[in-house]
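Components:
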Amino acid sequence: MIKETPTLEDVARVAGVSRATVSRVVNGTRNVDPQLQETVRNAIEQTGYTPNHAARSLVTRRTGTVALVISGAGGGSDVFVDPFFGRVTAGVVDFLRTRGVHPVLMLADTDRTRVEVVEFLRQGSADGALLVTTHAAESLPARLLDAGVPTVLYARPGRPMPVSYVDLDHQAGGRLAAARFAGIGRTRVATIAGPLDVHASQDRLTGFREAMARNGFPYVPVVEGGFTVASGAAAMRRLLAEYPEVDGVFVANDLMAQGAVDVLLAHGKRVPEDVAVVGFDDSAPALACRPPLTTVRQPVEHMAAKMAEVLITALDDPEERPRSVIFEPELVVRASA
Amino acid sequence: MIKETPTLEDVARVAGVSRATVSRVVNGTRNVDPQLQETVRNAIEQTGYTPNHAARSLVTRRTGTVALVISGAGGGSDVFVDPFFGRVTAGVVDFLRTRGVHPVLMLADTDRTRVEVVEFLRQGSADGALLVTTHAAESLPARLLDAGVPTVLYARPGRPMPVSYVDLDHQAGGRLAAARFAGIGRTRVATIAGPLDVHASQDRLTGFREAMARNGFPYVPVVEGGFTVASGAAAMRRLLAEYPEVDGVFVANDLMAQGAVDVLLAHGKRVPEDVAVVGFDDSAPALACRPPLTTVRQPVEHMAAKMAEVLITALDDPEERPRSVIFEPELVVRASA
DNA sequence: ACTCTTTTGGAGAGCGCTCTCCAAGGAGGT
DNA sequence: ACCTCCTTGGAGAGCGCTCTCCAAAAGAGT
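Structure:
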């Protein structure tokens, strides 16, 4: 690679045609005489030509990349400890690669980084944004919206606004859990909720409560956790102290459920015989947990893929109106309930 | 955002100066009269100007992004199930963000995708590549090398070649495990290795064997696994069948160790009383496992951050020769051994 | 007072590509 | 045979930015 990287011009010279013709062959736009095409192809081969991305995107106004913005709760790089983000990433990558688009990963945890994200998009470093945020108060959706950046959210925005998103019917998930407890005859049921400034947590709780009420249990003790194993354990300890006769717990994600199960076992309770536990998400820890968790499945990978699909579609047709796609949860019965 | 996005030209007109001056203010190159600077800043503010990334990188030949290429064993999007890749990503992102560089995520699992990766880099869509690969036979390092792409690997290349990399002293890790078994007086020790076409697996095994031999145990039963929970479980079952009196197992990663512990418990063995288990990596599952795993810590995040640092340095000084940075493992004692 | 250096702003040439506009040639209709 | 329409290649104008080269102005030295 001592030589300068060859340009269209070089190929054109070698092939004895104009720059335009080479461009047409490379991009497959318009008809080019098959024989000429052949000549050009050879010239490309011979020179080892690769189109320059910057030059191309300068005129096409497209980069072929999208920003995958993760606005984690705690922020920092810890976010990847939660299998959730790994699953989102997997789903997004899986879809995008079929379209030759690549995600650039960005964490938005501070105001500074949020500004950077908006700048990044405004200067056209990526064609659009996929925003995975948990907090309802997140300001990024609004900022991106009025920077005119094509955006799709994972989870509905904090305040209603004209932006596309995919989401899960979290309330239905809560109902699924309640139905399970009813099905196995549990009557002293409590719940460990996620952070209540997160829509998803709120909805899971609401759905659960309402279904429990409909089943004849107007009051369900609630303890708030932080979506981590440790916070689940702490919540379970508090719950056990206040409500020792509990025989069923709905925990708002699998990580916390794992912490809860640990505490339960440590207190000599059998799971599910003494206390049944239903988790949420159906992520790796649910399967790894002993006993394996009965949990409400959130099809994160599919949802993430759909999110990417919605963005790509919007990119191709800027006139399209915002769309929302809501997924249905599903109860996965294993050993814990 | 009805208006066209403003360009340098627009700002220059508003400020009543030349394009060059605005550029100088924006980039802070050369001296510009403070008062003029002020005027320009106002004009920028007023027009809402943001530099166009494509145009800039067309002339600077820099994009401010690097490719984070994951060439997973099984490939596909499953790679993120393994906490390892999440940790790498976290470490990389964590370092890059301090330098205003963003990673674009690419999976290379098929030959087609490998070609795409090389193309991507050759057309200057990113300034360099961070390559995380497990398999020794991976062809990407060589391809990137002779495409002249600045590259840093996680783990040494399959064949020696002039490329930078970070790695762990896996043999030392194996020795650490052997020392632990010696320390707790285990005499009937076996090991579950990782896939043997992976350098790291080989080295862990070699280090372990040699240390065991030095401790007076010339032969250590080996079963090969695939770095997944299920493969660890299967391996443990085989081991138990062939070698029922085993009282210590060194497992080449935590995921497999978890599977092994499950099987051990299911067979009525107590861990660590009957069989001590030492894992490798010290990732989330090690902590979540019951009992929590004694394991050899691989500082993945630090290593990944270092990998990013080496790349950034190489980007700034293209004359620099390839570097390698080897990290030392560390034994983390928990309950399982 | 004059020349020599240093500082600072402007002009303009690209960076490599796409795409519109033209022109030339061939096909088809009358 | 002529005219029109369609197909296909070339010319060249940018896309928005950086950076080198100049020139003008300001400061320094004698």
